[in-house]
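Summary for the steering committee. The consortium agreed at its last meeting that each partner would contribute one worked example illustrating the joint modelling workflow. Our contribution is presented below. We chose a case with several input lines so that the handling of multiple components could be demonstrated. No manual editing was applied between input and output; the record is shown as generated.
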Amino acid sequence: MKIVVLVGLPGSGKSTYLERMGVAGLSSDAIRKLLADDETDQSIHERVFQTVRYLLRQRLEIGRPVTYVDATHLTPRERAPYIRLGARYGCPVEAVFFDVPLEVCRERNRSRDRVVPEEALKRMALKLKPPTLEEGFSGITVIAYT
Ligand SMILES: Nc1ncnc2c1ncn2[C@@H]1O[C@H](COP(=O)(O)OP(=O)(O)OP(=O)(O)O)[C@@H](O)[C@H]1O
Ligand SMILES: [Mg+2]
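What follows is the complete predicted structure of the assembly.
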């Protein structure tokens, strides 16, 4: 089994990447919609991520070979729970980092249905810490912007 944690700003292409591969990840936005009928509701943050972790544990319990987790996961602190779950279940945890410039994310963000406020995007860009092996990832794939 393995856990794959996606890391990247809104608009960096995480959900599109999964869609192109034809896989369904555990998406924090999809869970927001399931819980609050609104995929932009930011007032239930903790509940959303508890649910992500609950579903991930259920998948590990039934032995699903790969689980992708689709959320921004900008800091080591936000990524640490997956490293701990991987250790508990004896499975590696990998990261896929969407290394896309803020300017490009901003542009893509503007031209889609669900627009993240400009200020929020800027704040998130300042917070972003690329994933490292030191955090406990077994491997890191960088999707460079071309
Ligand atoms: N490689 C790419 N080249 C050009 N456009 C892209 C690429 N990847 C994604 N996009 C476009 O950028 C927009 C945002 O992509 P996407 O929804 O996958 O981002 P995201 O990282 O999942 O963002 P969020 O964190 O807000 O869910 C979409 O309109 C998508 O079509
Ligand atoms: Mg997405």
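Residues 14-15, 29, 70 surround magnesium ion (ligand 2) (CB under 6 Å). The chain has one domain: 2-144.
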